[in-house]
């Protein structure tokens, strides 16, 4: 009896933009990144959300009925649940992979914590937030595959510092610890990391095809 390997079917990929990034094109269906990722999976879709900066001067009380809504993250919590519905409606019972830029990574991890079935997660220049620590841990434990975090040079990414102000801790943090792989892209800034070449050279495209 000859055992024939079962081919791996790549998961659908969802692209999640960041704060104030509705005007950027990288996450849209006609973008170069979308076209690149369509070479490894036939289904690549954008997810549009408000792009609100969660936690910035936000003193909303915690929601005791929601373990992942700590007040600061109310808007993100709502949008994350929309992301869960978006994916589960499009692909019932099929895990998706997510590529999320900036605070889109916060939204993606919240969505996984809320029950989104996910294979791989790629966060790109996502600001590490202390108020997201429990959510990062929950998301990592539920992922079927791997979580890679791409980050650039500290002196070229002012946006990542601004994105951390909402958690009350001043710093210049670029690394999300506890992920499967931290990927530093020398010379890259906040949006430079979204170049298709970086996704190829870092192995992200190969991972998403697995």
Major sheet characteristics: 6 strands, parallel
Helices and strands, in N-to-C order?
EHEHEHEHEHEHH
CATH superfamily: Alpha/Beta hydrolase fold, catalytic domain
Q: β content, as a range?
A: 5-15%
Low-confidence residue ranges: none
Overall structural class, as computed from helix and strand content, comes to: alpha/beta
Largest sheet strand order: 2-1-3-4-5-6
Q: Helical percent range? A: 25-40%
Number of domains: 1
**What's the total count of β strands?**
6
According to CATH, the fold-level topology is Rossmann fold
Shape: globular
**Termini, distance in Å?**
27 Å
Global Rg? 17 Å
Mean pLDDT: 84
Based on the structure given, which CATH architecture is correct? 3-Layer(aba) Sandwich
Give the number of helices: 7
The CATH C-level name is Alpha Beta
């Amino acid at each position: 009896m000859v055992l024939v390997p079962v081919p791996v079917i790549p998961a659908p990929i969802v692209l999640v933009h960041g704060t104030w990034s509705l005007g950027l094109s990288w996450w849209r269906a006609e973008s170069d990144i979308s076209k690149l990722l369509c070479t490894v999976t036939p289904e690549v879709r954008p997810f549009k959300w408000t792009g609100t900066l969660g936690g910035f001067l936000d003193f909303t009380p915690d929601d005791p009925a929601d373990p992942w809504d700590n007040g600061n993250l109310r808007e993100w919590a709502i949008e994350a649940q929309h992301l869960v519905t978006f994916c589960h409606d499009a692909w019932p019972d099929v895990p998706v992979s997510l590529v999320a830029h900036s605070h889109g990574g916060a939204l993606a991890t919240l969505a996984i914590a809320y029950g989104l079935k996910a294979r791989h997660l790629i966060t790109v220049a996502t600001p590490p937030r202390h108020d997201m620590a429990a959510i990062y841990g929950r998301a990592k434990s539920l992922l079927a595959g791997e979580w890679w975090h791409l980050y650039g040079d500290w002196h070229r990414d002012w946006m990542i510092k601004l994105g951390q102000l909402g958690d009350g801790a001043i710093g210049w943090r670029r690394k999300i610890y506890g992920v499967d792989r931290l990927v530093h892209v020398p010379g890259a800034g906040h949006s430079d990391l979204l170049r298709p070449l970086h996704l190829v050279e870092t192995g992200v495209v190969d991972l998403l095809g697995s």
